[in-house]
């Protein structure tokens, strides 16, 4: 029987709801996941989920934030020479996604973005505004919002084609090879470093 009202320990209950939502989004996608479903699987009343998160959009963003902590991402990418930020960003992102044969929990959000344009928009905005926007601003480049959006498009596109659509050349490439190819593009977006032609 689903318990109603507030459980003891609201912080742990909130975390439980986010963890349950992550599993639901991964298994069923964004569109097929409901607040009521998450509440039932978390063992709480749907009103409690709405009290904490307001609705499914904010819940999805909270799941993204739990899996990609903006503060950790900022430190991981900006701690070091600005000229190597693109490499650190891609390495961090690939670590979040995990092995292509056994992806980590972040892949569930990517699956949701593949099957739902609304989820894709939420993911792009989360990456561009809460993660990459702060990174671009910290690197003191001009037009940080545009740079963040371009970097987000590159990262989400790579994640979708490698982990969801599973294009053979991308699934066969190891992370180091992907970093060599893609990091210069991210570096260009983040700091306006000129791309060099492959020799």
Structure description:
The chain is mainly alpha-helical. The protein is built from 11 helices and 2 strands, in the order H-H-H-H-H-H-E-E-H-H-H-H-H. It is globular, with a radius of gyration of 18 Å. The model is unreliable at 1-8 (pLDDT under 50).
Number of strands: 2
Helix content: over 70%
Instruction: Characterize the largest beta sheet: strand count, sense, and whether it forms a barrel.
Output: 2 strands, antiparallel
As a percent range, the share of strand residues is under 5%
Radius of gyration over all CA atoms, rounded: 18 Å
Spatial separation of the terminal alpha carbons? 65 Å
| Secondary structure tally, helices | 11
Shape: globular
Give the integer mean of the pLDDT values: 88
Strand order of the largest sheet: 1-2
What is the chain-wise order of helices and strands?
A: HHHHHHEEHHHHH
In the predicted model, the low-confidence regions spanning at least 5 consecutive residues are 1-8
Class from helix and strand fractions: mainly alpha
Task: Map the helices and strands.
Layout: H1 10-32, H2 35-42, H3 46-53, H4 56-67, H5 70-78, H6 85-97, E1 98-99, E2 102-103, H7 106-115, H8 117-138, H9 144-164, H10 168-172, H11 175-191
Antiparallel strand pairs: 1-2
Helix pairs in contact: 1-2, 1-4, 1-7, 2-3, 4-8, 5-6, 5-8, 6-11, 7-8, 7-9, 8-9, 9-11
Summarize the structure.
This protein has a two-stranded antiparallel sheet with strand order 1-2. It is an all-alpha fold and 199 residues long.
């Amino acid at each position: 029987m689903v318990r109603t009202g507030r459980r003891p320990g609201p912080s742990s209950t909130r975390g439980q709801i986010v963890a349950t939502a992550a599993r639901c989004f991964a298994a069923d996608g964004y569109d097929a996941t409901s607040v009521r479903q998450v509440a039932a699987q978390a063992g709480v009343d749907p009103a409690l989920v709405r009290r904490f998160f307001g609705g499914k959009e904010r819940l999805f963003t909270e799941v993204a934030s739990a899996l990609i902590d903006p503060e950790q991402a900022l430190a991981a990418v900006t701690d070091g020479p600005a000229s190597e930020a693109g490499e650190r960003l891609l390495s961090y992102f690939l670590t979040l996604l995990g092995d292509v044969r056994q992806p980590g929990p972040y892949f569930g959000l990517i699956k949701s973005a593949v099957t739902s344009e609304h989820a894709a928009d939420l993911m792009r905005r989360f990456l561009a505004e809460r993660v990459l926007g702060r990174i671009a601003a910290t690197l003191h480049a001009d037009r940080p919002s545009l740079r963040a959006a371009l970097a987000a498009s590159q990262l989400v596109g790579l994640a979708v084609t490698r982990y969801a659509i599973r294009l053979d050349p991308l699934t066969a490439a190891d992370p180091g090879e992907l970093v060599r190819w893609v990091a210069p593009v991210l570096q260009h977006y983040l700091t306006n470093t000129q791309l060099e032609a492959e020799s």
